[in-house]
Design brief:
Layout lengths: L15 E3 L5 E3 L7 E7 L6 H15 L4 E7 L11 H12 L18 H9 L14 E4 L5 E5 L5 H8 L4 H6 L1
Parallel strand pairs: 3-4
Antiparallel strand pairs: 1-2, 3-5, 5-6
Length: 174
């Protein structure tokens, strides 16, 4: 993730991240899409529910301008100990994930990825900016602005219900 990038960026689209193979991905490629950015882990008690529902959400709205961006993170009790490519294989094989899984990142502490500094600066959680656990979700509008933040215990399909996807998110997707 670009060293010159910081939480001062004005849009998520200004960031460059790395995919699971280590290749650079310019997030401007997602301009015009509603995004859900999630820190994921393979060995968490919330893994099955989140991957299952994230896959369902993605399949339901991928053709309507919606995308999920998953970032593996091993900062919570070592629940993502494998490589980024192994995480991608796990998610694709077990949960039929088709959304992109990026390179592992840190979401807290001195090594926090610039993208996560940006996300946390835009929407704090119940206990401040710190990410509390795996599967924290950030909803991003088409212009790359952070709209909402959801904690681990908010299932992905509840986000659809909370937002009234038929009204709110679909309005962004149109």
């Amino acid at each position: 993730m670009g060293a010159a990038q910081s939480a001062d960026e004005k849009s998520l689209h200004e960031f460059v991240v790395k995919d699971s193979k280590g290749d650079e991905v310019y997030l401007r490629a997602y301009e015009g899409k509603v995004l859900l950015v999630v820190n994921v882990a393979s060995n968490c008690g919330f893994t099955k529910q989140n991957y299952t529902q994230l896959t369902e959400l993605h399949n339901r709205y991928k053709d309507k301008g919606f995308e999920i961006l998953a970032f593996p993170c091993n900062q919570f009790l070592g629940q993502e100990p494998t490589t980024s490519q192994e995480v991608q294989k796990f998610a694709c094989d077990r949960y039929k994930v088709e959304f992109p899984i990026f390179q592992k990142v840190c979401v807290n502490g001195q090594e926090t990825a610039p993208l996560y500094k940006y996300l946390k600066a835009r929407k704090t959680g119940f206990f401040g900016s710190r990410i509390k656990w795996n599967f924290t979700k950030f909803l991003i509008d088409k212009e790359g602005r952070v709209i909402s933040r959801y904690g681990t215990t908010t299932p992905p399909l509840a986000i659809e219900i909370l937002l009234g996807v038929g009204h709110c998110v679909c309005k962004w997707l149109i």
